[in-house]
Amino acid sequence: MQFRDRHDAGQRLAEALAFLKGRKDLLVLGIPRGGVVVAAEVARALGAPLDVFIARKIGAPGNPELAIGAVASSGDVVLDERLIAGLRVPADYIEAETARQRQEIARRMAAYRGDRPPPKLAGKTVVLVDDGVATGATTLAALRALRAAGPAELILAVPVGPPDTIARLSAEADRVICLHTPEWFWAVGAFYVDFSQTTDEEVVRLLRETP
User: Fold this and answer.
1) What's this model's pTM, rounded to 2 decimal places?
2) Which of 1, 21, 63, 176 has a CA positioned 20 to 30 A from the CA of residue 98?
3) Cβ neighbours of residue 124 under 8 Å, at least 6 residues apart?
4) 6-55+113-209: what CATH class?
């Protein structure tokens, strides 16, 4: 399975989430940046409000795409202790990288939300959306932080992810909707024809246009 772009992925994901349409307690959260494009399509189709939840990966030394952990906008940090030990990542590197990602989260929160208060999640049906998962570190941090906020139901919805990651994340959410779980998985972008970078400006526009 391959998606034309994030809009196509979001529309297909919305079809799989059609059972939620009409729910009054529904809230769709996109993980910036690319996940917000997918989430906007889901929110429109379901008639649900759209917001963001930010989580940032903590990359390995010399390989920033390899997640050794993640930090969420709530402040929650999830670390892959086994991978950290295997790579012999020093503690001071983790502290510095965590602080750097927290600064980036603060920058994005200000850019995307301004002075708007974060949405209330307690008692809501929360659908967390991204454009795909690989190691799942950032998604795991986000799910654990959202769970602590007390939603009535926590659903993860992604177009694509490897089977082992999806299985691991299924233990953190009440329900996981994933359209494609290929055994041979190398990168999220490989399953998109167009996986061009999403800008901060596009995220702000989508949040403004999707009530």
Assistant:
1) 0.91
2) 176
3) 25, 26, 27, 151, 152
4) alpha beta
Q: How do strand 50-52 and strand 55-60 relate by DSSP bridges?
A: unpaired
pLDDT of residue 211 exceeding 70: no
Rg (CA), the chain: 16
The fold of 57-112 is Ybab; Chain: A; (3.30.1310)
What value, to the nearest 5°, has the Cα angle with vertex 194 and ends 41 and 137?
A: 70
CA distances from 196 to 5, 37, 134, 136, 186 (A): 8, 12, 17, 21, 17
The phi and psi torsions of 159 (rounded to 5 degrees) equal: -70, -35
Q: Residue 203 is which amino acid?
A: V
Q: What is the rounded distance in angstroms from the CA atom of residue 78 to the CA atom of residue 81?
A: 9
Q: How many CB atoms lie within 10 A of CB 65?
A: 10
Domain segments of the chain: what residues?
6-55+113-209, 57-112
The conformation of residue 191, written as its DSSP 8-state character, comes to: G
| Secondary structure element (H or E) that encloses residue 52, with its range | strand 50-52
Element (H, E) at 36: helix 34-46
How far apart CA 194 and CA 141 sit, in angstroms, is 27
How many angstroms separate the CA atoms of 134 and 96, rounded?
24
Please report the beta strands in 85-162, taking only residues with DSSP state E, as ranges in sequence order: 125-129, 153-160
- Residues in CB range of 55: below 8 A, 6 or more apart: 31, 70, 71, 72, 73, 138, 139, 141, 142, 145
Write the pLDDT tens digit of every residue in 63-73.
Answer: 988 889 989 88
